[in-house]
Amino acid sequence: MKKKIIWIIDDDAIYQKIIEKIIKKSGVISSHTSFSNGNEAINTLKNTLEDNKQLPDIILLDINMPVMDGWEFMEEIKYLKSKIDKRIIIYMVSSSIAPEDKNKSKTFTDIYSYIPKPVSVNDLIAIVSNE
Amino acid sequence: MFRPKTSGFLLFLFLMSAVVIISIQRIQMTCEARDNEMNVRLKDIHQNIEQSLKNCYTTTVSLALSIDDEGVPQNFDLVGKKLLQSNPIASAIQLVPNGVIKYIYPIKGNEAAMNLDILGSNHLQEEAKKSIETQKIYFAGPLKLAQGGTGIVGRLPVYNGNKFWGFSAVVIKLENLLNVPVINLMDKSKYEFQFSKTNPISNKEEFFLPSKTDLYKSYYKYINIPDSDWNLYLIDKKPFAIYNEIIFRFFLGLIISIVLGVFTSKLLKKPKELELLLKEQEEKLLGNEMKFKSIFDQSAIGFALIDANSGDLIEANNKFCEMLDYTCDEIKEKGIVSLTHPEDLYKSTLNFKRLREGKIKEYSAEKRYITKSGKLIWLNLTVSRLWESNKKHSTNIVFIKDITLRKEALALIEKSETRFKSIFENSPLPLWEEDFSAVKNHLIELDLMNKNPEIVYSFFNENPEELYKCISLVKIIDVNNECLNLHKVKNKALLLENLNNLIDSESFDAIKQQLVAISQNVKQFSIDSRIKNMKGQYRDINLKWNIIEGYEDSLERVILSTQDITERKDSEKAILNSQQYIKSLVDTIDGIVWEYDIETLACNFISKKVKQILGYSVKEWMESPTFWQDHIHPEDRELALELSDSATKQKTNIDYEYRMITKSGEIVWIRDIAGFVFEGDKAVSCRGIMVDITLMKEAEKNLNHSLYLVTEQNQRLLNFSYIVSHNLRSHTSNIESIISLIESAESEDERNEMMHLLKSVSDSLDETMSHLNQVVNINTNISLMTTPLSLNTYITKTKDILSEQIHLNEVSFITNFPDDTVINYNPAYLESIIYNLISNAIRYRHPERKPVITIQCYKENNKDVIEISDNGIGIDLVRNGDKIFGMYKTFSNNKDSRGIGLFITKNQIEAMGGSISVYSEPNIGTTFKIHTK
User: Fold this and answer.
1) Is B321 strand, coil or helix?
2) So where are chain B's domains?
């Protein structure tokens, strides 16, 4: 199985460290990049639009973040989609159990699935496998 | 032949014409005589004056001759004296060489004229030049003389060797000139003399003698005097005196003409009148004869002359013959007796005999006769003896009238009376025939006829004895059988006997009303009343009366009916009771019951409850056709009318709610439930009930508010639970992941690293728990203590806490509220709220300008509002408006942003029953408004 490039967009610094450990443990991720809000990720995305090697295969996107939250990120990426020649699978990853968050994620066709935290090694392997 | 009046008038015209002609001729003659007299007198005067002037001419010529060739007068005084002696009217003579008076005789009295320059004087030179121009003597003046008085000056131009030397002049006093015998002898009462001259300068005629007569309104004659331009006038002082006599004669002639005219007219009338009188008498005689003949022949009644002894017909008129259908000769031939009905013959013969014997002078009889066709007729005969002077009684005259029709009519009337009597007696209605004439007469005596009905009614109220009197004056002529049944009496006599006992006090009012009606000359009357029958039972009756035709004035015959309406009254009472019961029931319903007519949309009924619910009376509602729509709340009117119209069109029941405005201006919620009343298939009216649901609406409002509060609280709790869940889960999931990683750790270092992470999670979790605890505490403080707090104190306190940051960032404050502003709030919350908002304003300051924080406090809708504004970086509310007050919601990269301050602030404000709102623009600034409860 080809290793994947994964972006983690989450403002929780501890979670970022944990997910890095899990990525290492899974062995299915070739590289990962962490962003503390959606805005940072969008800016990076805009800079690497034509470089498929830099562009992620998978994005694990948190909902509640400062500056630009997960929903705003989804709105912004709509405008960049046509310029990207790579399939990016986006997972909404959140601690929220509010039904409206889960329901809202379904309204975005670009969100592959809604995954409640915590994300385990097996979950990550499954995510990559699903791809 | 002229008629007398015409003849008289023509004579009057003739005499008047003669009078007019004579009068005109008389006037002409008198005028001619006067003219002749005046002309003669004027001529005499003229001749006298002319003679005097000629003498003056001679005097001037003689004086001129005294001038020698050298132009010097010789022996002037001597010549002058002689000349004056020869001319008595001249008062002085003058020689005027070169126009300057140098010689005057006599000098005494004329000194003033000496050396007077005639040609140099403006008013003298004109006339002086005339004599030079004409080279003749010219009499100047009359003028005011320099030596005094009025006079005339005759100037003769003198030439010495064809050269003008000067004037030889004579001065004549005016009174001397006019002192001629003819003038003096003139009748001054009749004529007046006037002397005039046309002023050479003004060209106006000037008169020199005093006069009271207006020349131009008088009759006058005048004559011009040569060499002087003078006019002599002779004026008739009484120009109209000649007419007085003429007018007198004219009127005398007029009166004589009228008298003669009238006299002639009267004279001519007499024979005419006599002639007319004769003719009239002739016509009268002829007329009488004709009249008698025509009366006899064409009379509507029959005449006959009967032989007083034999009873044979002598002569009969046409009418009598027509009655019997025989000719006069046929009657004579058959004999009167044979035509008489046998049953009437005896009585007729007896009367005829008594008349003949002179026992009676005349007799009348109604007899039957048999006509030619065999028909029986009734004739009324009046037979009397016919007397001719100095002759024996031999003839009877008979007046005959056909009474067959009257006899037949009487028979019919008798039959009819019998029939009507039977109807009266057997009528199902109780009928009375009464006589009110005595009652009316008594009302006349009381002076109540045609008086105001109220006055009449009051009179009988105040005078019950008069009421009884009137009752007693009613005469009952007859009653029918039904009356006996009504009053429960056996016969009429008993009824009349007990009538007074049957009149009950309850019927007094009806009796008074009847008396009022009689006083007003009412011909028909109807009233509901009550009687008591012989068994003591009360019966309701409808009493009606009509005055029988022909008795309207006397009221001698009045027909009354007293219909027993007891059962009807009982039914009416039952209906009335039922209606009152329903009305009472309707009025007790706790709602306004109403009914509208579908056709007219007029309100038929509105229950009294309208007063209690809306404050308006039933009358106020009924008076205005648009009362309902006018009093609907303006905001509800359109919809309510729309629903009402729709229901009316579709004839469907309707149940709707709207607000109405009460009389006192309050708002009442109404629930209106309406339906339609059908008669057959047609809806005739709309009925409904309007229920006051104001209390229910208020309860509903309170309930809704409570529901809203509960829902909101639930929502907040739910949100909070999500927040708690999310925040806790983010930590627990991290713990779960770390534990999993510890379990799968391959080295001690790795495990230690995880343990270190676990401690971080623990700290973070502790902090989250602390925040959540704060929020829980805020929301669980049900009864927060509030106290009056000085806003200024709390601002100062916050400034102290943040003094380092304020100083470092050069923050300035603007406070727009009085120093003593007091807010009722929880102290801890107020401190926290102000701290959070001011610290946020400093934290999110704009990098390019110094922070300015404005704090205001004012009232809005009677509630305190605290407003804190800054000029910081601002917030994009379009993007972040929904999460500005959310927990852990941050939207900047500020390292101090925790996303908890505004969340806590909002919770604190809402826990105090208030609200917070935000207005912001990126790069401009942000304003937070705190609304207190």
Assistant:
1) helix
2) 37-189+197-227, 298-409, 427-571, 589-692, 782-931
Rg (chain B; Cα; Å)? 73
Tokens of B609: 């409850």
CB contact under 8 Å between B722 and A118, yes or no, is no
Stretch 750-779 of chain B: residues touching chain A, C-beta under 8 Å: 754, 757, 760-761, 764
Fold agreement between B298-409 and B589-692 = yes
- Euclidean distance between CA atoms B500 and B471, whole angstroms: 9
> Does residue B402 contact residue B299 with C-beta atoms inside 8 Å?
no
Q: Average pLDDT for residues A90-117, to the nearest whole number?
A: 89
How close, in Å, is residue B704 to chain A by CA atoms?
Answer: 26
Q: Is B757 in Cβ contact with A17 (below 8 Å)? A: yes
Ranges of residues in chain B whose predicted pLDDT is under 50: none
pLDDT tens figures, B658-695: 999 999 999 999 999 999 988 888 888 999 999 999 99
Least confident of A46-50, A78-82, B161-165, B281-285: B161-165
> Which of B722, B879, B899 lies at the smallest CB-CB distance from A66?
B899
Return the pLDDT at A131.
Answer: 56
Tell which residue, B236, B175, B242, has the closest CA to residue B209.
B175
CB B725 to CB A18 under 8 A?
no
List of E strands, B473-523: 475-479
State the pTM of this model. Answer: 0.40
Contacts of B883 in chain A (CB under 8 A): 69
Q: Among A22, A67, A96, whose Cβ lies nearest the Cβ of B737?
A: A22
**A119/B contact by beta carbon, under 8 A:** yes
Nearest-angstrom CA–CA distance, B566 and B538: 9
Report ipTM for this prediction: 0.87
CATH topology of domain B298-409: Beta-Lactamase (3.30.450)
Q: For chain B, what's the residue count? A: 933
CATH superfamily of B427-571: PAS domain (3.30.450.20)
Contact by Cβ (8 Å): B27, B242: yes
**Residue labelled with tokens 């003028």:** B143
The answer to whether B686 touches B595, Cβ cutoff 8 Å, is yes
Query: Nearest-CA distance from B876 to chain A in Å?
Result: 11
Nearest to A97 among B725, B888, B889 (CB): B725
Q: Least CB-CB distance to B726: which of A15, A22, A96?
A: A96
Report the CATH number of the B37-189+197-227 domain: 3.30.450.20
Q: Determine whether the interchain pair B744/A96 forms a contact, defined as Cβ–Cβ distance below 8 Å.
A: no
Positive or negative, the Cα torsion across B715, B721, B723, B726? negative
Q: What backbone torsions phi and psi does residue B515 show, to the nearest 5 degrees?
A: -65, -40
Q: Smallest Cα–Cα separation from A58: which of A101, A28, A103?
A: A28
3-class SS letters over B510-550 = HHHHHHHHHHCCCCEEEEEEEEECCCCCEEEEEEEEEECCC
Q: Write out pLDDT tens, residues A55-74.
A: 999 999 998 888 888 998 99
Helix residue spans in B327-446 (DSSP H): 328-334, 336-339, 342-356, 404-426, 437-445
Enumerate the residues of chain A whose CB falls inside 8 A of the CB of residue B722: 96-98
Mean pLDDT, chain A, as a whole number? 88
Mutation site for B-interface testing, chosen from A11, A18, A101 by largest number of B Cβ within 10 Å:
A18
What class is the B589-692 domain? alpha beta
Residue of B740, B844, B884, B897 to mutate, interface with A, max A Cβ within 10 Å: B740
Q: Which amino acid is at B122?
A: N
Q: Note whether B594 and B687 are within 8 A (CB).
A: yes
pLDDT number for residue B689: 94
Protein fold of B782-931: Heat Shock Protein 90 (3.30.565)
- Chain B stretch 486-525, residues whose beta carbon is closer than 8 A to a beta carbon of chain A: none
Residues of chain A in contact with residue B740, where contact means CB-CB under 8 angstroms, are 118, 120-121
